[in-house]
TrEMBL record, chain A:
This is RNA polymerase sigma factor, sigma-70 family. Belongs to the sigma-70 factor family. ECF subfamily. One of its GO terms (molecular function) is DNA binding. Residues 6-69 form the RNA polymerase sigma-70 region domain. Residues 161-251 form the DUF6596 domain. Residues 97-148 form the RNA polymerase sigma factor 70 region 4 type domain. The keyword Transcription applies. InterPro entries: DUF6596, RNA_pol_sigma-70_dom, RNA_pol_sigma70_r2, RNA_pol_sigma70_r4_t2, RNA_pol_sigma_r2, RNA_pol_sigma_r3/r4-like, WH-like_DNA-bd_sf. It comes from Paractinoplanes atraurantiacus. Pfam families: DUF6596, Sigma70_r2, Sigma70_r4_2.
UniProtKB/TrEMBL annotation, chain B:
Pfam families: YCII. PANTHER family: BLL7171 PROTEIN (PTHR35174:SF3), BLL7171 PROTEIN-RELATED (PTHR35174). InterPro entries: Dimeric_a/b-barrel, YCII. This is Uncharacterized conserved protein. SUPFAM superfamilies: Dimeric alpha+beta barrel. Gene3D superfamilies: Dimeric alpha+beta barrel. Signal peptide: none annotated. Residues 17-107 form the YCII-related domain. Belongs to the YciI family. The lineage of its organism: Bacteria, Bacillati, Actinomycetota, Actinomycetes, Micromonosporales.
Length: 381, 135
């Protein structure tokens, strides 16, 4: 059994323990112990029913822990109080755990950490390594998060939008250690989509698949950034694209549009273009209009200006940029690109250099610096 | 989920409000100051926001490459005017506001007379990884 298959059992096993009367924090610890035990024991003796094995081991760990506590009396009332749930209940438990771990009382970083541990089944060390913080710090973050949600009722329905934001953060943060966070986010979103039929869950899954499909083409061997227009499209993963498009079409057919479906539609239009020149920018602009109506986000209007620049020419793009706040992240980079396309190379070079100074990530900074250098050296030639 | 570097200077920062050199403090004031710094780091570990903290010696030298087959050139000690970093703390927080709030607390470390130093600290965001979704 591979580790992500093993980890996929995490939320439903926690759910069983909670139904039997364990509190969430103790159940989560017990299941982590059982997962580690499984990693040790299963390579030589894989159980016939992995989930039942995990439930037994986790429950025993929980009993050991409570035995050490003062809750002995309570424990005796709990033992085998409830049978293991069937598949429908397991799906409900899984969904409840997503809601709990993305509870609005948690900060984004705690919700992310708790989701990766209690839903994803990752160890604290793996999560710490993925986010480049010491293990002790991540352990404290997770334990505080568990304390924060300790008074939340497990069976309380949550807001799926908060869950989707957490999964989006996991996917988009882009750190990569031993744990591939993007792949993990996709796995968790798939699992959510199996437990909860909702067009925006499908929309987010499609969005992730369509972007993940481009990953092999996004960076050069030296790690430098390759913009969408310059990517080798033969390196895009066509099976991920096909899956993403199919999921998206099914979601859109239900006529309950949301921001993730609209973002996925834009990604699908890019994926659909055999070359950058064949991109259907008119349709992309229309999707940005939909997205702007749904979110009223300045970042969306900025990206829309890029699309307008491609659809109707750089002057139209610059006009779409005019009403926006120049302090928006990436505003200067977009302005530089549009000025270059409009033929104003000195302005473009100056703006690329300024955008490089304003960049918040190293890959983009280096890319923008190279753009400025390219225009500056062209000027001398 | 953003990392910030809090930089403390031996010199080169604007003057603190309670600007008395440490060797003019009472010994117990120095003890209280160090305790405050340690407690601050310990508290950040508890909140799950601590990444690293280190102190630097005031002494050091400039070093540069001097060509193929030649040893690096060194130059020192530092000129009296050089901006001099005393140490740093790296934090991992949810927002810039939180980073500023924590830097403010660190700057309140007690100095001469047991009063807060109101020291100027440099707060610098780390460059992050490239996000996956940009368009």
């Amino acid at each position: 059994m591979n580790s992500s298959l093993l980890r996929s059992l995490t939320p439903s096993v926690i759910g069983v323990l909670v139904r039997r009367g364990a509190d969430f924090a103790a159940a989560e610890d017990a299941v982590q112990d059982a997962l580690m035990e499984a990693v040790r024991a299963w390579p030589t003796a894989e159980p016939r029913d992995p989930k039942a094995w995990l439930i037994t081991v986790a429950w025993n760990r929980f009993l050991d822990a409570t035995r050490a506590d003062t809750a002995r009396r309570r424990r005796e009332d709990l033992v085998d109080a409830e049978p293991a749930p069937g598949p429908a209940a397991a799906a409900d438990d899984t969904l409840r755990l997503y809601f709990l771990c993305a509870h609005p009382s948690l900060t984004p970083s705690s919700a992310v950490a708790l989701t990766l541990r209690a839903v994803g089944g990752l160890t604290t060390r793996q999560i710490a390594e993925a986010y480049l913080v010491p293990e002790a710090t991540m352990a404290q973050r997770i334990s505080r998060a568990k304390k924060t949600v300790s008074t939340v009722r497990f069976d309380q329905p949550g807001d799926v939008a908060t869950v989707l934001r957490v999964l989006y953060l996991v996917f988009n943060e882009g750190y990569s250690g031993d744990v591939d966070l993007a792949a993990e986010a996709i796995r968790l979103t798939r699992q959510l989509s199996a437990a909860f039929d909702h067009p925006e869950v499908a929309g987010l899954l499609a969005l992730m698949l369509l972007h993940h499909a481009r990953r092999p083409a996004r960076t050069a061997p030296d790690g430098s950034l390759i913009p969408l227009a310059d990517q080798d499209r033969t390196r895009w993963d066509t099976s991920l694209i096909a899956e993403g498009v199919q999921i998206l079409q099914l979601a859109l057919s239900r006529d309950r549009l949301g921001e993730f479906q609209a973002q996925a539609a834009i990604a699908a239009l890019h994926a659909d273009a055999p070359t950058a020149e064949e991109t259907d920018w008119l349709q992309i602009v229309e999707w940005y209009d939909e997205l702007a109506a749904l979110t009223d986000s300045a970042v969306v209007r900025l990206n829309r200006a890029v699309a307008v620049g491609e659809a109707d020419g750089p002057q139209a793009g610059l006009a779409a940029l005019t009403p926006l706040d120049p302090s928006l992240p990436r505003y200067t980079a977009v302005a530089a690109h549009l000025h270059e396309r409009a033929g104003d190379l000195p302005t473009a070079a100056r703006l690329y250099a300024q955008a490089a100074r304003e960049a918040t990530n190293a890959a983009e900074r280096d890319h923008l610096t190279r753009q400025a250098a390219r225009l500056n050296t062209q000027g001398h030639a | 989920m953003a990392k910030y570097l809090l930089l403390k200077h031996y010199r080169g920062a604007p003057s603190a409000v309670n600007d008395v050199p440490m060797d003019k403090w009472a010994p117990e004031e120095i003890t209280a100051h160090i305790k405050y710094m340690n407690d601050f780091a310990a508290r950040l570990e508890k909140t799950g926001e601590f990444v690293d903290g280190q102190a630097l010696a005031p002494e050091g030298e400039w070093v540069r490459y001097d060509g193929e087959g030649r040893p690096p050139v060194t130059d020192g000690p530092f000129a009296e005017t050089k901006d001099l970093i005393a140490g740093w703390m790296i934090i991992d927080v949810d927002s810039r506001d939180r980073a500023v709030e924590l830097a403010g607390e660190l700057s309140a470390a007690p100095g001469a007379g047991g009063k807060p130093i109101h020291e100027w600290l440099e707060v610098r965001p780390f460059l992050t990884e490239m996000p996956t979704i940009t368009e």
